[in-house]
UniProtKB/TrEMBL annotation, chain A:
Species the sequence originates in: Pedococcus cremeus
Lineage of producing organism: Bacteria, Bacillati, Actinomycetota, Actinomycetes, Micrococcales
Gene3D superfamilies named among the record's database cross-references: Protein of unknown function DUF881
PANTHER family per the UniProt record, alphabetical: UPF0749 PROTEIN RV1825, UPF0749 PROTEIN YLXX
Family: Belongs to the UPF0749 family.
Name of the protein this chain belongs to: Uncharacterized conserved protein YlxW, UPF0749 family
Automatic annotation (TrEMBL), chain B:
Keyword Transmembrane in record: yes
Main location: membrane
Record's keyword annotation contains Cell membrane: yes
Protein name (record): Small basic protein
Membrane topology recorded in Swiss-Prot or TrEMBL: Multi-pass membrane protein
Alphabetic keyword roster: Cell membrane, Membrane, Transmembrane, Transmembrane helix
Organism classification: Bacteria, Bacillati, Actinomycetota, Actinomycetes, Micrococcales
Record InterPro entries: DUF1290
Cellular location(s): Cell membrane
Family, as annotated: Belongs to the sbp family.
Cellular component, GO, one term: plasma membrane
Transmembrane segments: 29-48, 55-74, 80-101
Length: 277, 110
């Protein structure tokens, strides 16, 4: 409430506000009253060293000071000048942003881990698969193998050796821990069979002749002693009038391969754990 | 003239000192400044109307500031501080506009 129309002397000492620097009057058509208004302004603007004038000047100083201060304060845009609800809203915004960004970060980290882990685990899986392939290849006779073992040679010029003897020898070797066995040029696998024919012994349909050379990979000392046990292979061979020699070697290579045939009836049952075949 | 110089001087002081507004004053200072501006424009209008009185100016200046600050304070206490601040600013702005229009009519006859 500024100026209640208090009829007063404008003779009093009082200047205020924007006075002097106002530029040219705009409407020259009505010069007289306009000029009186400007005159009033000029008159009021004249400096008068009175108490009220000084008081007004003091207030003006305070106003200018507050104005500049407030402008600067606003330009600083600090949080401290905000109200509680504004602060709460800002805090909510920040919290939501943080939550959203946190979710994003977690998702991206998850993706990154999955990609990295995928690379690692696929390499790992490849390695494991290769290992399993090697193992199974040796077991199934589809892969050549080498390692320490023995070479059992049965020299049987008189043809007394039977399939049963060879089967016994194979069983002894397996009992002694043979991991890969080759008889003559035939790789011995799970479905290897021995038959007696008039021409000699057939192993899986392949005729093998004396001297029978049986290569086995495994613990060589164990297998050699297994051949020597009383009533074992060596003794049986000797009883038949043949000669068997056991040669322990650090390196026995089994190169004969077995050709896998697709099973005609058997079908694999899907593994429950997916551990694979 | 002297008050105009005082206004300019106050602005310069504020610019150079760059004071920190105390926390308790921060909600009220902007409104107080607007109210004081309203008082100043009212004073100019009163001068042109020929009814200016310096005591009235000083009292109305202070009363404007105090009342504006009090309204904002009351609004804060009632939980409608920001709305009431907006209302006060609107009212004061309207008053400033009407005062300026009156001044303009006096000075420019337009």
């Amino acid at each position: 409430m500024t100026q209640p129309p208090e009829p007063t002397k404008q003779t009093g000492p009082e200047p205020t506000g924007p006075s002097t620097p106002t530029p040219e009057p705009t409407s020259p058509s009505t010069p007289a009253p306009e000029q009186s208004s400007w005159r009033t302004m000029f008159r009021m603007a004249r400096p008068r060293a009175t108490r009220a004038n000084l008081f007004a000047a003091l207030l003006a100083i305070v106003l200018g000071f507050a104005l500049a201060t407030q402008v600067q304060q606003t330009q600083q845009q600090g949080l401290e000048q905000l109200r509680e609800d504004e602060l709460v809203r800002i805090l909510d915004d920040v919290t939501q942003d943080a939550a959203r960004l946190g979710n994003d970060a977690r998702a991206l980290e998850l993706t990154r881990d999955r990609l990295e882990g995928g690379a690692n685990s696929s390499a790992e899986a490849l390695r494991a698969a290769q290992q399993r392939l090697d193992t199974l290849g040796i077991l199934a006779g589809t892969a050549p193998a080498e390692g320490p073992g023995i070479v059992l040679t049965i020299d049987d010029p008189s043809g007394k050796v039977t399939s049963a003897l060879l089967l016994d020898a194979l069983q002894e070797l397996r009992d002694a821990g043979a991991e890969a066995v080759q008889i003559g040029s035939v790789r011995v696998v799970a479905d290897t069979y021995f038959t007696d024919t008039p021409n000699g012994v057939e192993v899986s349909g392949t005729l093998v002749k004396s001297p029978y050379v049986i290569k086995a990979i495994g613990g060589s000392a164990t297998m050699a002693s297994a051949m020597d046990i009383p009533g074992g292979v060596n003794e049986s061979v000797r009883r038949l009038g043949a000669v068997s020699t056991v040669d322990q070697r650090d390196q026995v290579s089994i190169t004969a391969l077995h050709t896998l045939e697709e099973p005609q009836y058997a079908r694999p049952v899907p593994a429950a754990t997916g551990a694979g075949k | 003239m002297i008050p105009v110089l005082g206004l300019i001087g106050g602005i310069l002081i504020g610019l150079f000192l760059q004071p920190e507004v105390p926390l308790w004053l921060q909600p009220y200072l902007p409104i107080a400044v607007i109210a004081a501006l309203d008082a100043v424009f009212g004073a100019v209008r009163a001068v042109l109307d020929g009814i200016f009185n310096d005591k009235v100016f000083v009292v109305s200046f202070l009363a404007n500031v105090v009342v504006a600050a009090f309204i904002v304070y009351l609004g804060d206490q009632l939980g409608v501080g920001s709305q009431l601040s907006t209302g006060v600013v609107v009212v004061l702005g309207v008053r400033i506009f009407s005062n300026v229009a009156s001044i303009r009519r006096h000075l420019f006859r337009a």
